[in-house]
Amino acid sequence: MMGCLWSLFFENSGVDPDGSKKSGANCPSSAEIAHNGILEEKMENKKIILSGIQPSGSATLGSYLGAFRNWAALSNEYECLYMTVDMHAITTRQVPAQLRKNQLEQIAQFIACGIDPDENTLFIQSHVLAHAQLAWVLNCFTMFGELSRMAQFKDKSSKNAENINAGLFTYPTLQAADILLYGTDLVPVGADQKQHVELTRDIAVRFNGVFGDVFKIPEPYIPTVGAKIMDLQAPTKKMSKSEIADGGCILIMDKPEDIMRSFKRAVTDSETEVRFDQETKPGISNLMQIYSCATGKSFEEIEKEFSGRGYGEFKPCVGEAVVELLRPIREETERLLADKAYMQEVYKKGAEKASYIANKTLRKVYKKVGFIER
Length: 374
Fold this sequence. Notes:
Layout: H1 2-13, H2 30-45, E1 47-53, H3 61-72, E2 78-84, H4 86-89, H5 96-112, E3 121-124, H6 130-139, H7 144-148, H8 151-159, H9 166-180, E4 186-188, H10 194-211, E5 219-221, H11 256-264, H12 282-295, H13 299-305, H14 311-338, H15 340-369
Parallel strand pairs: 1-2, 2-3, 4-5
């Protein structure tokens, strides 16, 4: 397996296993060399943002409001890399055909949500082999106790008692490799993922303490609005595609009638006043946050708009706002998925660009730890 892995690496890098440059079509062209020079210059002049999302199912309304929409607005100020993290997804059992479908749908959704592939790097995690290669090195600089304390491991272990695998346990180390490969400055995360960024920082500091200034120390980037959309049926829990069956989760690709049904059934409280109070009114506060994100209205404006009208009128209005918010995204996603040649071009170019950056970091790390250059 390792021989196959390395042969693929050298096919992609334009270098033979003996370290010599390849001749022929696999050598970088003058245009590619110029492109890489421009890329390096951009990454020197802009801070780097990287994030990824699991293709374990269709993206949720929470993914759009808390991540995708914010990502689309960042490319003017930052050099942004966004990936579909298929390697993370297989820590729980996946149906292979569905996983492939989800990955393509996710990249299409990135673009449909306004993330321009010409201005951002969009790629599939497993297409950049350096992620797995760096993860192994970082495993050797990550303490067992650190991984044992990860809240997500505890949560997923309780939900997948029959499949508590090593990948699930070392998931945060692969995530650290994802981040550190690109000299990432900022990692857009929900509040529940901040712990993983903190561990990444600890691993980077530990490695740098041994080998010098190798890794840039990243910072979490947590949006102040729409960072955490809650489940419609359990408003004290984050909206998750793993909870689709109970109607508490809205998917980007849901039909309008299904969206409306879910909002009409959303859990609120025994009062009727539309008022933002996360402590005593978590359900209605969650709906207000969703409505605010969908319409741009402040909580004060929403309270005034629905003063005296009650939940019976408010919940359908939230549903209608979400239907119209997601309609163009769903339709554009479907159009993109029908254009298979374009989709392939996007993720292949993204992987080539990401690999160029990642392999530079990996070579530096391999030299530091004492591996002989091939």
